[in-house]
Amino acid sequence: MPRTEIQNLELRDQRREQILIAALKVFSRRGMAATKISEIAKEAGLSHGLVYHYFKSKEEIFTLLVQRAAESAVQIIEKARLQEGTPLKKIKWMTEQILQGLSAGEQILLFLIMIQASTSDAVPEEVQHLFSSPEYKSPVNCLVPLIIEGQQCNEIIKEDPIKLAVSYYAFIQGFSISKLQWNQCPIPEADLIIKIFK
Amino acid sequence: MPRTEIQNLELRDQRREQILIAALKVFSRRGMAATKISEIAKEAGLSHGLVYHYFKSKEEIFTLLVQRAAESAVQIIEKARLQEGTPLKKIKWMTEQILQGLSAGEQILLFLIMIQASTSDAVPEEVQHLFSSPEYKSPVNCLVPLIIEGQQCNEIIKEDPIKLAVSYYAFIQGFSISKLQWNQCPIPEADLIIKIFK
DNA sequence: GTCTATAGGCTGATAGAC
DNA sequence: GTCTATCAGCCTATAGAC
């Protein structure tokens, strides 16, 4: 009995996801240029030919993953804003979520691919456009309003909010890297980072 | 009149340095794998053949640069220890030096190549050995004694010194990346970072 | 849908002329 | 010391069998 249309569509999505997850793993450790399609295929447990059946090119896969990572970076901030409590409480909550996510899982891989995508020149044009486009909501920009709110209720020090946002995000990105450099490295409590706002 | 032996040696060193500086520029923006020898040659203003006259391979150039970067990372900490004042004053002085160095010059390029070398799997074996060898003095390890000193004179909070060192270094690395992502990004004062020690 | 075989292009590295 | 021409190997992407 042949597969139904719906089953085929499900299989298709499943395979695509399988390849994307494998690609995320390899890209985040080796970078876009050094990653070979054969490595992605091997990680996903299928032939390299099949990868090209589901995706047009290596660049397409990379770009897709970067878009996802960018979305998820902004999402966590949006989630924080919906949280109960004062602005600083929201930031603390978010920091806890992020630090926890860094400890395990693929959350850290999304961070790493974002760092690679935004710091390397050796990425597809589409990715470069993504970051330079005016619509692009950078995590720093998303964070600024929350910081200003905190300043208005005297919870956060009266310092240039952009400077504070950049510093905060630098911390987060720095930790992702530290974790990669030294997998067992101790993770600080959210309070330690929050100090920069006081 | 032919060149003397000494002039030849000078020329040789000069050319090597010229190539190394060009390579640092390209590597730090494109990574080890995505960098082509022809790009290094072009940046240095000479033919690709000549690069191979001075260096055995692309990997050799990359490894050399990483070694330099590793040395310079530790050097700044050593310099700080020789400074006058209390431990926290020394750390503050060092932070000012680093933040200033990030603003311009090739100091930031050394940071970036260190980050690449220590976070990517796509680097020469020698580089991987460098970081995993027991003799390797990581910046975090070099910083710990200074932090402990500060704790002993009640200048620094009684928190796991390794955790503090990791956090400090995470910030520094994170900031290098932020600078690359957004060249005009505001630079915080050293005091803002020092807060994590209080 | 999935695989294997292979074309085509690019790049690291070398050889040899000047 | 410096350059240009060239080789050899690898990797992306495709074609075609099952």
Automatic annotation (TrEMBL), chains A, B:
SUPFAM superfamilies: Homeodomain-like. Residues 36-55 bind DNA. Pfam families: TetR_N (PF00440). It comes from the Bacteria. Residues 13-73 form the HTH tetR-type domain. PANTHER family: ACREF/ENVCD OPERON REPRESSOR-RELATED (PTHR43479), ACREF_ENVCD OPERON REPRESSOR-RELATED (PTHR43479:SF11). This is HTH tetR-type domain-containing protein.
